[in-house]
Write a structure and sequence with these properties.
Elements (H helix, E strand, L loop, with lengths): L4 H23 L2 H18 L6 H21 L9 H4 L9 H8 L3 H12 L4 H8 L3 H22 L2
Helix pairs in contact: 1-2, 1-3, 1-6, 2-3, 6-8, 7-8
Amino acid sequence: MALTQEQRTQAVERWGDMVWRLALARTASVPDAEDVFQEVFLRFFRHEDRFQSDEHRKAWLIRCTVNRAKSVLSSPWRKRTVPLETAEEVGVEDDYREVYSAVLSLPGKYRAVIHLHYFEGLSVAEMAAMLNMPEGTVKSQLSRGRALLRDMLKEAEL
């Protein structure tokens, strides 16, 4: 059964911020995050009838966002024309802007787990399942990402 326009709007309002922030964290580029956001929701609306629960929808959206961002990043014709500073201006509350900027400057593998843990509130087990990696790897990346972030924030005295 196809979703009505109102139901689609409600879905974007409910899950859109999460998808946007994750896409931005993975790509560190506003235009690329916009592309990922659109593609994820197009696919979501095509497959909406397959989901059993809101947890299933959320897990699918996170997994799809990670996969689409990975595709964008590995695309041979991808051009980085928007500076990283632009990304920090969109989608993050003013109180967290400087911290989020530091998160965006982390290497990709650390940026993803830091974002999912602190900004989306996922556990190590949930991240491992969604990123398709062992829990130990997630824990290592989270620990190393925290250490890098701590050093960056100390340097900036935040």
